[in-house]
Amino acid sequence: MSRRLLTLLASIPLASLVGCTSPPPRDSDATTREARSAASAYWEATLTRCGEYSYSGDNFQITQYKDFDYTLRDLPLTKTDRDSGVVWRMRTAVRPGTPYRVWDQARKSWAGNWSNVGIAGWSAEIENWKGKIFYSGATEIEATAYQPKRFDCSRVPQ
Asked: Residue 20 and residue 10: Cα distance in Å, rounded?
């Protein structure tokens, strides 16, 4: 290749040579902060802290978590996602190994010893779509509308 051609090629921005079809890079720090905030809000709304433990439950089952923690994983976006306005998508899950136990309603006692949450534990998808945060599970729920039934601490078995 001649020197002139190399000089000419060096003066052309690389993006114009490749067509610049990829989306602009995400601000990973801001995305991570926003996703962590959304995941924390999800778990705080889903679980109730009563003393040293966190609880979830309804009329059929009470689950007690010790040292509750969660994970957050970036999920890839498709071109269709980006074109429709999805800015980022993450999956949050109960951290594998988190100790938990379930109240046995029939026996009126905790069922067995503490178990550890497995790799396929409770999880939810969170996404930023056009600047709004949505939680996905069986249905998509806008974060501002997400109001799960809170666990009443007076129901903690003694």
From this structure: 17
Q: Which residue has the tokens 């089952």?
A: 61
More confident residue, 144 or 132: 132
**Domain of residue 64, residue span:** 25-74+89-126
In a domain? residue 55: yes
Q: Report yes or no on 2 lying in a domain.
A: no
73-115 pLDDT, tens per residue? 889 999 999 999 998 899 888 888 888 888 888 888 888 788 8
Q: Give the CA radius of gyration of the chain.
A: 23
What integer pLDDT is reported at residue 11 of this predicted model?
A: 39
pLDDT digit string, tens, across residues 22-42: 333 455 778 888 888 888 888
Task: Say if 102 falls within a structural domain.
Answer: yes
Task: Evaluate whether residue 41 is within a structural domain.
Answer: yes
